[in-house]
Design brief:
The protein is α+β, with helices and mostly antiparallel strands. About 25% of the residues lie in helices and about 30% in strands. The structure holds adenosine-5'-triphosphate (ATP) and magnesium ion.
Amino acid sequence: MADIVIDHLVKTYPGATARATDDVSLTVADGEFLVLVGPSGCGKTTLLRMVAGLESPDGGTIAIAGRDVTDLPARERRLSMVFQSYAIFPHLRVRQNIGFGLTMRKVPKDEVDRRVRDAAAVLELSDYLDRYPAQLSGGQRQRVAVARAIVVDAGVLLMDEPLSNLDALLRLQFRAELKRIVRRVGATTLYVTHDQAEAMSLGDRVAVMRAGRIAQLGPPIEVYDHPTERFVGGFLGAPPMNFVPATVRVNGTGPSLHIGEQVLPAPEHLDPYRDRAVLLGVRAENLEVSTAEQPGWLTARVEVVEPTGASVLLTVRLGEHELKVQAPPTFRVEPDSTVWLRSPAQSLRFYDAETGLVLAGAA
Ligand SMILES: Nc1ncnc2c1ncn2[C@@H]1O[C@H](COP(=O)(O)OP(=O)(O)OP(=O)(O)O)[C@@H](O)[C@H]1O
Ligand SMILES: [Mg+2]
C-alpha cells in the first residue's frame, strides 16, 4: 500500500508573512492519480517538495506506505520525481539518463536496457537514445525526465508541471499518453499543475488550492459541476463558470430570483435566503440560447461572437454583467442583437455574494 498521508502540514518560508502551505491534510490512495491545481503561488510546489523531502515543514507529518517520512532525507523516501526544472545530466546520453535510477539500484544491465527501450518507445524517444541532452529540444528533454522517473517503478511518483515545456499540441498528445503510462505502472501519483484542463484530464481526484489551503477536493467532474465556492468555479473550466449577482425574493408563490429588471423562478431551497444578495453560478455550456423571443427566459445583448469549430462562444451582456454562452456550432447571430437564455434548474448553483461559499443545500 503506497499511499501518501499528509497531515496538517504547515510551512512558512523565512521572512515571508503568509504561509506557503496552511494546514494541509490530504490522503492519496494507493495507485491513485491526484492532481494539485491552483493559481501561481498557491503552494503546490511547496507541498510537493515537502513530500519529496526537499523542503521541511514547520508542522505536521507525512507518511508514505504507512511509514512516517517527515524527518527522512529525500533519498530514503522511495519515490521518483519529475520537476518543473527537469534535471537531466548533460554529460550522459539519453539512454543513460533514462536508466540512471535503475543503474543506481544495481538492476542487471539486460533489464535496464529492456526497460529503457520500453520507456523510450512510450515517450517517443527511441530515435534519440544515443544523443546528449544538448542535442534535444526542450520538450524532448522533458520527456527524458518523465521516462527516467517512470522507469524506476518506485510506487510513488511526484510530478511538478512535467508538461510545461511542451508546445500546445504536443502537450495535449502527451497528456493522454502520460495518463496511459501512469495507469500502466500503477504508481501512486501526486501531480502539480496550474493548468485546469490538465488537472481535469489527468486526475482521479483534483485538489484545488488557494493561498496555501485546499479549497475543494474531489473527482474532476464533481468539482467542475459542484464547486463549493466561487473561486473553484471561476478557476476550473474554459470559460470559467459565470457568476451573476441576484437577489432572492419570496412571495406567495415561492422564491424568485431578481437579476436587474428580470425575474426568474427560484428553487424552493432558496426560501431561507429571502432578500439576500446571492451569486447565480452557471456554466457556458448549460445555457440554452435562442434568437427568437421566448417568454420567461432571460434576455441579453450579444457583444462578441467567437466560432471555435466545436461550438460558438458568445459574450453577452445581461444588465451590467457579462456572461459566456456556449452555443451549438451551427448557431448564427450578429453582435448587438438580442438573445433569450435559459438553463435547466439542475445546472444552477448559488453562492453567498459576500463569502463566495455555496449556499447550504444549493450545491
Ligand atoms: N524558496 C522560497 N523562499 C521564499 N518563499 C518562497 C520560496 N519558494 C516559494 N516561496 C513562496 O511560497 C509561496 C508558494 O510558492 P509555490 O512555489 O509553492 O507556489 P506554486 O503554487 O507552485 O506556484 P507556481 O504555479 O507559480 O509554480 C509563494 O508565495 C512563493 O513566493
Ligand atoms: Mg510551482
